[in-house]
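User: structure tokens for this one?
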Amino acid sequence: MELSSFLQQANQQHGDRDAVVCEETHWSYPDLAKHATALAAGFQKLGLKPKDRVAILHRNCHRFMQAAFATTLGGQTLVPLNLRLDPATLGEMLKDCGAKLLLCEAKFATLASESAAKAGGNIRVMNVEECAAADSRSFKPHQNSPEDIAQIY
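Assistant:
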């Protein structure tokens, strides 16, 4: 089962129950779907295409889950990066995977920027909140094909 299908099914089965809890933040399944769709629409507005790589430097929390579901909705591949690595190593990983976007938690912005610079490419660095589109009503989810076997790199 694809992550986007899982979210839709969980939304129908569990409704307003908590889907994600991170410190003081509680998101229900509809909340998670709304936030993931807004981020996927933001990816689309940035010009990301299906199969593009979106790297992430973030703690495991609600924003990480938002990014995981958003990349599935948009057809991109999420590339989780280890926060404990140095910028040179992260830069090599970014270069190797061909990331077009590096999402980061605000407190890791310096690490993200340095890592993107070490990659030597044109990698945009943004936090999840600034990337999410204010209006996602026109967003159309990507329809994956059977050849799309994995979406987390």
